[in-house]
Write a structure and sequence with these properties.
Number of domains: 2
Shape: globular
Structural class: alpha+beta
CATH superfamily of the largest domain: 2,3-Dihydroxybiphenyl 1,2-Dioxygenase, domain 1
CATH topology of the largest domain: 2,3-Dihydroxybiphenyl 1,2-Dioxygenase, domain 1
Strand content: 25-35%
Order of helices and strands: EHEEEHEHEEEEE
Helix content: 10-25%
Number of helices: 3
């Protein structure tokens, strides 16, 4: 198996409401003719929104997950100021701020917001991670 992630799918309670939230963040839909699922190109990978019950059914698992699911999505910023700006933008789009941006124990700066379905997003600036012009992340060796 190649070392990569191609697509992250979020099981959402209300597909249209969730897609409007991401559109308010400035994201543009891809695969315009897709029905019952919403796709967003996100750099070299994609984010999909799919009804939670249908996603659970497709994966053959129970749909009644509660609390922290043990996963967080991340947006890595090019600067500390960008972290603050993204958190403000997310809040204006309807996100809940889970943790205001602050100095991180690992030497960077980060905060968290959650989308309408409670999926946590970390917004972080890490001085050791290069974010290229196209938004790709380059990790040090």
């Amino acid at each position: 198996m190649e070392q990569r992630v191609s697509l992250v799918t979020l099981g959402v309670a209300d597909l249209e409401s969730s897609s409007r939230f991401y559109e308010r963040l400035g994201w543009r839909r891809s695969v315009a003719k897709a029905e019952g699922v919403v796709f967003f190109q996100a750099g070299g990978m994609a984010l999909a929104l799919y009804p939670r019950l249908e996603l659970a059914k497709d994966a053959n698992v129970a749909a009644d997950g509660q609390g922290f699911a043990g996963i967080a999505l991340a947006y890595n910023a090019r600067s500390r100021d960008e972290v603050d700006a993204v958190l403000r933008e997310a809040e204006a789009a309807g996100a809940t701020i889970l943790k205001p941006a602050q100095e991180a124990f690992w030497g960077g700066y980060s905060g968290y917001f959650s989308d309408p379905d409670g999926f946590p997003w970390e917004v972080a600036w890490n001085p050791s991670f290069l974010i290229t012009d196209d938004g790709s992340i380059r990790l040090p060796d």
